[in-house]
Amino acid sequence: MSNIKEEDKENVSKVKRWRLILGEAVEKDFEEMSGGMDIALNKDELLMDQALAAIYNEGSESYLGSRGAGRGKSSPHISRWLGDVRNLFDKDLVRIIQADAMERCGLKQLMFEPEILENLEPDVNLASTILLLKDQVPKQSKEGVRNFIKKIVEEINKLLESDLKRAVNASINKRQHSPIPSAAALDFNTTIKRGIKNYNPSLKRIVPEHYYFFDKQAKTAASKYTIILDIDQSGSMGESVIYSSIMSCILASMSAINTRVVAFDTNIVDLSEKTEDPVDLLFGFQLGGGTDINKSINYCKKYIENPKKTIFFLISDLMEGGNRAGMLRNLLELKESGVTVVCLLAIADGGKPYYDAQMATKIAAMDIACFACTPEKLPLLLEKTLKGQELKGLGGIE
Questions:
Q1: C-alpha span between 60 and 107 (Å, rounded)
Q2: Which helix (H) or strand (E) holds 258?
Q3: Torsion over CA of 111, 113, 119 and 121, rounded to 10 degrees?
Q4: What is the pLDDT of residue 218?
Q5: Phi and psi (nearest 5°) for 362?
Q6: 346 to each of 205, 220, 232, 319, how far by Cα in Å?
Q7: Among candidates 20, 9, 13, 17, which has minimal Cα distance to 53?
Q8: Span 173-222, pLDDT tens digits
Q9: Beta bridge partners of 225
Q10: What is the structure's pLDDT at 68?
Q11: What Å distances lie between residue 96 and 91, 93, 329, 362, 376, CA to CA?
C-alpha cells in the first residue's frame, strides 16, 4: 500500500512539473486527466507559476507588467520578482530565467537601477552584457555595477586562483641552488632525495654528504618567464574577456613571471598596468569593435626579449577582419623563433566554443596549440604549457 502511495506522489510531482512548464492555460485539461489526483499547486508552486508566467506567458501582467514592460514605475515589481526567483529556483535555473527576462521583457534598460542590480544573481553572461553597455551606466548606478561585477570576479577567482598559482609554481619556480648555507633556505626534498643512499640503520637517520640550499637572490628580468595575453575585445568576446582578465591578474600577482595584457579590436589598448585589480582591468576593455589580430600580434612582439621563455596566448574568436595571411605568418614566425604560442578560442553561453573553424584548423595545422578551453581546464593547460608537455586531450583543434 505504501508503494502505491509513493507512486502516486511521484505521478503528482510529474504532473505539477508539466503544469508549471506549460502554464495556467493547461490547468483545466490537467485536472480532467488527473484521474482524481490532487494536483492543485501549493503556495510556493503558485509563486513559481507566477514568476515563470511573468516571462513566458504572452500577455502576462504579473510582476513585470504587460509585455515589453520593465520601465519606469514597474521597477519595484521587478525587484520583488527577482527576489522571488532567487528564493524559488536553484542558481542554474535563476541564471537562465534572468537571461530570458532580459531578452523577452525589455529589462536591459532597467538593470542599471540599484534595486534591480541588488537582486540579480551574479552571472558571467549578464556581466558580459553589462560590460558591453557600460558606457550607458548612469552616474548613480556606477558603484552598484562595480559591486555586481566584483561579485562575479570573486566567484571566478575562487575557482581559478589556487590552481593557477599551483600550476606556475609546479612548473617554473624551480630556484637554482646556492652555495651559501642558510637554514631558512634548506631544500629538504633535494637533500633527502639525494642523501637517501646514506641512510644509517643504527642511527635511523639519513646522513647526507651534501646539503642543498635554495638561492634566495631575486631573479633577473631576463631569467623570468614572460606571459603575454593578447585578448580580442570584439563584441562576441564578453565571457572570454572576463575569464582572461581574472587569469591575467592572478598571473600578474606572481613575482616569478612577467605578465603583459593587450586588448585589441581594430585598435590596441595596452592594459598591463591595470592588472592589480581585475574589476579595473575589466572596465578597461571596450567590447564591441571589429577585429585586427595581425596588428595586435605585431604590437606584442615588443615584449618578447627571450623567445624560449615567452608564452604568447592569443585569446580570440579568430574572425579576423585584417590581414588573415599576415596573421598566420606572424604566428608561425613567433613559434619558429622559440616562443610557445597557444590560441585560446572564444567561449560563450556558459562555455560553448565560438570561433572561425577554418582559421582554427589552419593554426592547428602549423602545430600551434588551438583550444576551445573551458575555464576549469585553464590551470592544467597553463601547467602543461610551462612544462613543455603534450597538450592533446584538453579539447584542442586537430
A1: 15
A2: strand 257-264
A3: 30
A4: 41
A5: -65, -40
A6: 55, 34, 9, 10
A7: 20
A8: 554 444 545 555 566 777 776 677 677 787 777 777 666 655 444 444 45
A9: 257
A10: 43
A11: 9, 5, 42, 35, 21
Task: Give mean pLDDT, residues 163-177.
Answer: 70
* The pLDDT of residue 270: 95
What letter represents residue 234's amino acid? S
Residue with cell 612577467: 258
Residue spans of alpha helices (H) in 173-255: 188-195, 238-252
CA distance 147 to 331: 38
Cell of 269: 589598448
Contact between residue 260 and residue 228 where contact means Cβ atoms under 8 Å apart = yes
Whole-angstrom Cα Rg for the chain:
28
Helices (H), the chain: 2-22, 27-33, 43-56, 75-88, 91-104, 114-119, 124-132, 142-172, 188-195, 238-252, 278-283, 293-300, 324-337, 357-365, 378-387
How many Å apart are CA 133 and CA 63, to the nearest integer? Answer: 25
The pLDDT tens digits for 320-329 are: 988 999 999 9
What is the DSSP secondary structure assignment for residue 311, as one 8-state letter?
E
Residues 6+ apart with CB under 8 A from 241: 128, 131, 231, 233, 263, 282, 285, 287
DSSP string, 262-305: EEESSSEEE-GGGTT-HHHHHHT--TTB---HHHHHHHHGGG-S
Cα–Cα nearest to 348, from 220, 236, 182, 230: 236
Q: Which three cell numbers stand for residue 266?
A: 581594430
User: For 223-233, what is the mean pLDDT?
Assistant: 89
Place of cell 590552481: 163
Q: Which residues sit opposite 200 in a β-bridge?
A: 205
